[in-house]
Amino acid sequence: MVKFLSDSGSPLAINIYPFLSLYADPHFPKDYAFFNGNSTPIVDGSATYTNVFDANYDTLIAALEKNGFGSMPVIIGEVGWPTDGDINANIEYAKRFNQGLLDRIIHGQGTPKRRTPPDIYLFGLIDEDAKSIDPGNFERHWGIFYYDGPIKYALDLGNGRGLVAAKGVKYLAREWCVMSPEANLLDPNLTNSVNYACTYADCTSLGYGSSCGTLDARSNASYAFNMYYQTLDQRKDACKFNNLSTIAKLDPSQGTCRFEIMIDLGTHELPPSRSSSLAVGSNQNSLLLALLGLITLITYA
User: Fold this and answer.
1) Angle in degrees, CA 144, 145, 149, rounded to 5
2) Is the pLDDT of residue 282 over 60?
3) Domain count for the chain
């Protein structure tokens, strides 16, 4: 494969996920997953590594050099940090990691083995509520934007530029499907009803350490019911869980736990003209955030 890419003049793309190193090993030094951490550096000959991103990248470069492909261009096909679904997947850590990554790009910082930084694709643009969670609940929460377009956290893209939230988003009615005040937590139908809702809607935010992980039992059920209700575009029959649910007009969101309202897919505002299309900041070289699919493309001109 590598020889084929070399013969055709193509780059090799790899994915680097420092979050997964932290997720897979509870003893992994947390600060080593970030670019501004205080963990003990790893010294490898004349090279010193202060973060796992550089170490992973240069491990590949060393292998390529050993096999005669030391000049092969290598790009980062995916890199990012999730914001929910695990105790280490949160907005604070995601902002810390992604801003650290952007700062390196803006300042043209490479790795000990390759001083010129590679092209990098930041994963991802928005969350994916139907993605497989076999690797973990965090898999649905890699986006830097919420599903409906608001910014999860600010990022400095250079030259005073930042992310821009989606405009003109229309929502369905401000109503939520919640557990009825008259319903009993000991109702024998409750467990099956919640399980049913979470089978067909995304309940990954309810897990331990997640944004809705501190809800009480009644609020847990309400969250599950509402996610199902919104996923089905607030269909009247989507809030009927064996007399356990009701429609509420008061937002039940609590703290970091956001009870969503589905966007109205039937109404849209016209997109802006070409002259007012999204642009983001750069260093001396252009730094472009391309809103393509579910990734953010960062390149060097």
Assistant:
1) 165
2) no
3) 2
